[in-house]
Amino acid sequence: MSKVEAITLRDSLSVSLTVGAYGIAFGAASVANGFSVVQSCLLSILTFSGASQFAAIGVIGAGGSALSAIASASLLGVRNGLYGVIMAPRLKVKGFKRIIAAQITIDESTAVALGAEKRGPDAMQHGFWLTGFGVFLFWNLFTLLGALSAQAMGDTRAWGLDSAVPAAFLGLVWPRLENNRDRALAIGSVLFALAMTPVLPAGLPIIASAFIAIAVGLRP
Amino acid sequence: MNTFWIATIGTSVIAFALKLSGHSIPAHWLEHPIVQRINALIPIALLSALVGVQTFTEKNEILIDHRVAGVSVAVISLLLKAPFPIVVLSSAITSAAIYNWF
Question: Based on the domain organization, do B48 and B78 belong to the same domain?
């Protein structure tokens, strides 16, 4: 691989730190919902998908069965499969590297990679691996921290983290909006997801918005 | 194996299976121009939906709170062509300020 551009490194680090810090909230919530510190850390290492993890511990915490916890988490994990379809032809990796690539194929690594794509295939690949490993590192460190000090952390909202994450996603989708069709799709997806929020289980409105992209893409 | 272990292991196994399956679909399935076009549009839709859901909802309800102010500042930063860390930081500071003082 060629030299990593400063802008790619900066984007990857910003996202890794911002999103990774959310691991504190997960670790704390997980322990509060009855999972052990080891189980909380295993979820972050092995599942490594924030939405799925929150869904799993949330369902158990609300008194749901292990099966419904797994089902809810898996429904949210479908999104990562979709990202895999997008990333596989771009990464072109095989064997062990493909296993690792699959594990770190999440919202953030995909978003940073696609955002960096305008600067060429090298920047795109750097963005994917740096963000994937970066989020993995910080997400797991902060999960451990949060799980160990479940009470002490307090409220991540008081630190603005709950705005920083959508702001980061917005900053990543912004440069991809090149024409009016893209902008209409972006606004349409927001409105659609919001309209579906009271109707569909949490997480599904996001997945369902992919159908709008498909509908738009099918038109010549 | 209690409920917590089954949930932990089950969630993890299926999460990885889903990730790997995405990477395992044959590349030629994606070579058609329509597939290429959809492939480029899907991230816009998903990321936009993520922004919307994380800004305006709480569980299954629409909720307007400090996050809307934070993300609005992010929009202004982006319109002013601010660099990415400024976009994120200005949003966090705005949101935290409103959350803590109102």
Answer: yes
Q: Is A174 exposed, middle or buried (0-12, 13-18, 19+ CB in 10 A)?
A: buried
Question: In terms of domains, do B46 and B62 share one?
Answer: yes
| Centroid of chain to Cα A132 | 10
Cβ(A167)–Cβ(A180) below 8 Å: no
Q: Which residues of A touch B25 (CB under 8 A)?
A: 84-85, 88
Asked if A214 and B89 come within 8 Å (Cβ–Cβ), the reply is no
Task: Establish if A60 touches chain B: CB-CB under 8 angstroms.
Answer: yes
Strand partners, B57: B62
Chain B nearest C-alpha distance from A105 (Å): 7
Judge contact between A61 and A32, C-beta under 8 A. yes
Same-domain status, B69 and B85: yes
Per the structure, the complete domain to which residue B37 belongs is given by 28-101
Co-location of B61 and B32 in the same domain: yes
Tens digits of residue pLDDT in B56-89: 988 788 999 999 999 999 999 999 999 877 998 8
A70, A158, A216 ranked by CB distance to B10: nearest: A70
Nearest residue of B to residue A110, measured between CA atoms: B43
Distance, C-alpha A183 to centroid of its chain:
22
ipTM: 0.82
User: Do B63 and B91 have their domain in common?
Assistant: yes
pLDDT digits (tens, 9 = 90+) for B31-42: 678 877 887 787
Q: Are B52 and B22 members of one domain?
A: no
CA–CA dist A17, A131 (Å, integer): 10
* CA pair distance A18, A29, nearest whole angstrom: 18
Is A105 within 8 Å of B48 (Cβ atoms)?
Answer: no
- For the segment A64-68, the average pLDDT, to the nearest whole number, is 82
Asked if residue B33 and residue B4 are part of one domain, the reply reads no
